[in-house]
Amino acid sequence: MPIREDLRGRSPYGAPMIDVPVTINVNENTHPMPREVVEAIGREVHQVALNLNRYPDREFVTLREELAAYLGHGLSKENLWAANGSNEILQQLFQVFGGPGRSVMSFVPTYSMYPLLADGTNTEFIAGQRAEDFSLSVESAVEQIREHRPNIVVLCSPNNPTGTGLELAVVEAVYEAVATYNGITIVDEAYAEFAQDPSQTALTLLEGRDNLVVTRTMSKAFALAGARVGYFAAAPAIADAVRLVRLPYHLSAVTQATALAALRHRGQLLANVEDIRAQRDRIVEKLTELGLKPAQSDSNFVFFGGLENEKEAWQALLDDGVLVRDNGIAGHLRVTAGTEEETTAFLTSLEKYLKG
Ligand code: PMP
Q: Which of 67, 163, 271, 338 is least crowded, fewest Cβ atoms below 10 Å from its Cβ?
């Protein structure tokens, strides 16, 4: 196969897709979509179907306006950009600010797509390190950035797979270190709505920081993973730069209509966030009681250690119809906080396995 030499031997993104009753392995929102929202999406999509012979609004102006209104923090449509999931958002940012001869750094363990997106855009991936407890201090982050001078730094907060949010002081310090040589700092806030304190968002740092990008998604809190809508907030010049690499009309009319309907019904959709938070806290509490070591979570999932054999535990859960995620970290697994019933199924199965 005459593929690019640098892609030879690489593996694609590969969270297992197994059809089992309790699928809590990819941090989706598993709460059923409220009926009214389903109907509203249906109506909006029906409306745009009448005009599907035409290309969609290439600038998705209404969607950017409504996303800005949702985020607040004095943002307007000029600050907003959207794409097919925050994965595409990150890909576009790597295309513009990375590329051959350039590098992107993130701190592992972190979201497994960063190195893959780096490969795809021919950007060197630098795996920055965290402390043994997976935390990241100002001193350590700044020292590693000074050593490698990456063109892009991606901070995942709350971090996937560990679940914990970064203090804003770390984001500020990283930004200062990266901005000294005109690099870009991206804060991936895919799980921001689930944070213990949602006011601790990097959106509060955007003003006056022209090289800062905060990415978000509608896949998690908005329960819209299937629609593929991610977005970012940044200085208008960043959105302009991304226009150089986006495909024309990349956000379909169906996608725009779906996202708008969901945004306009956010009261109902975000009401489930409270229950997901409660299930998450319940998981942390019960795992602690079972003698395991769950990390503090600001997200809709819990990362926990203390397992003697995580592969065996993963299989035992699967045998009971519960699919969780093995991120390849010894003694650890990650579980999404689902509905109350799903959470009960997970906790019951895990307890049974531990008491074996
Ligand atoms: N960032 C993080 C940290 C994630 O965990 C995910 C999805 N698992 C994404 C980005 C991408 O999500 P999406 O493309 O659905 O917006």
A: 271
Given ligand 1 and candidates 188, 251, 334, which is best to mutate, with the most ligand atoms within 8 Å of its CB?
188
> What separation in angstroms does the CA of 255 have from each of 59, 201, 240?
13, 26, 21
Please, are residues 25 and 325 in contact by the beta-carbon 8 Å criterion?
A: yes
Q: Hey, what domains does the chain have and what are their CATH numbers?
A: 5-32+267-355 (3.90.1150.10), 35-264 (3.40.640.10)
Angle at 40 between CA 37 and CA 43, to 5 degrees: 150
Contact 255, 49 (CB under 8 A): no
> What is the total residue count of the chain?
356
Low pLDDT (below 70) residues in the chain? none
Q: Give the separation between CA 142 and CA 41, rounded to whole angstroms.
A: 45
In angstroms, the CA 157 to CA 175 distance is 14
Provide the pLDDT for residue 266. Answer: 95
Q: Is the CB of 215 under 6 A from ligand 1?
A: no
The overall average pLDDT reported for the chain is 96
What DSSP letter does each residue of 208-245 carry, written as one string? T-TTEEEEEESSSTT--GGG--EEEEE-HHHHHHHTTT
Ligand 1: does its nearest atom lie under 6 Å from the Cβ of 213? no
| ipTM of model | 0.99
Model confidence pLDDT, tens digit, residues 34-71: 999 999 999 999 999 999 999 999 999 999 999 999 99
pTM over 0.80, yes/no: yes
| Distance from residue 85's CA to the centre of ligand 1 (Å) | 7
